[in-house]
Input
Amino acid sequence: MPLMYVNYPEDTFTQEAIDKLAMQLTNFGEDAEKIPKTPYLFSTTWVYFRPYPKELVFHGGKSGGRNVISLEVNVFEGGLDYAAKKEFYKKATDAIAEATGMPKDKRRPVYILFRDVPDINWGFFGNIIAINDLLVASEDEEPI
Output
């Protein structure tokens, strides 16, 4: 059930690239958490794309420059181990690079930050939800 935010300068992605990348990130998140792939659980992974005007994106204290993209990934604390995160970093960076047309032989300005959120800090439909609640969800549960 990762909750992800892709932050990027405007005009970085086409709508077609966003659609494809959203599906890829959703799959990568589900794979990393190793939870059952039911339609309901698949629908609990959300990806938000947040463009910013290029002049409001600063790095090195200056606006403009390279299109640096950040991806914030909120997950259940303890839900992903080192290997799962490492694999996610690689897959997500490659997918973002492909979506933007970044050359494969150059360093890719993609920053990924995982936030391991304790169960008590996840609210869902008015209740606290834990990763174990997702593991026992019915296969017939209606997608969101």
Q: What stands out?
A: The chain has a mean pLDDT of 90. The CA atoms of residues 3 and 9 lie 20 Å apart. The helical segments are 15-33, 39-42, 82-100, 131-135.
